Amino acid sequence: MTLTARTVTAGARASTRPSRRRTTPVWPMYVAIAPFFILFLCFGLYPTASSLVLSFQKWNGLGSAEWVGVDNYVRLFSDATFWLSVRNTFIIFALSTIPMMIIALAVAAMLNNAVRYSTTLRIAYFVPNITSVVAMAILFGAIFGETFGLANALLNGLGLPDFRWFSTPFGLQLTVSILITYQWTGYNAIIFLAGMQSISSEVYEAATMDGAGPVRSFFSITIPLLRPTIIFVLIVSIITGLQSFTEAQVLTSSASTTNPNSGGAGQGALTMVLYFYQQAFSYNKLGYGAAIAWGIFLIILVFVIISWRYSVKREDPTR
Description:
This protein is 74% helix and 1% strand. By secondary structure, the protein is an all-alpha fold. The protein starts with a helix and ends with a helix. The mean pLDDT is 83.
């Protein structure tokens, strides 16, 4: 009886000790992740909340701010230039995203079937994404120059007339779209390649035994199984594409003598973020600029939700 009691008592003590050990080292984990939350609070959450408050005020950066309520948002909804920037942004987005995803899929399929130099090719396709956007914009400005540009020289070599790349709104939008496509095609191709390599080879072997060729296998197997990756790339492209700024700003900086952020000829390259930058930092209308920023956020949020819900419904008809 005594031995049994001692055994039970020792077991009870042993069962309580590990619980103390599990609860004691928890605080170092919170300390380890605390810097991220502190930095996010200082440089993420606080500026976001401040910009929301600022959007209801009128302030030029000096002196005290004046509370104007929803006047900035009322002005935003009736601002024709803002809606022009929205239109330009969606045109540039459509001209860049659709070709970019098609080319990225084709490049990923070729890299997936590459036998030699596959690593070198992946690095080569990824280089444009890590190259400075300003440097690429300056290079594209020289390539598509209307006087001595290589693009018009190529068109002349094919017997075609010069194209007004920087003198027309559509020309500016097309040039910015080509630059964005060049910048992001390799990056998305690497993502598509990772998705393709996760597909089991047994599926392709079964399709080959059934008589399916490479083209049929690509459209009947690769594309359907790559659907989650395509949805991810589409959503990321919406978020980044609707926030295009540097490409248009650098390409059109020398096109206007009055305001370098006006968007070029006919304001064809005046994107939403470029218009926000113009109002906030060129005209010092920080309150109205904050309202534009929140308007951009809401537009992007709506289109991301629409794309996500449409994709989920197509993937699962029961939802």
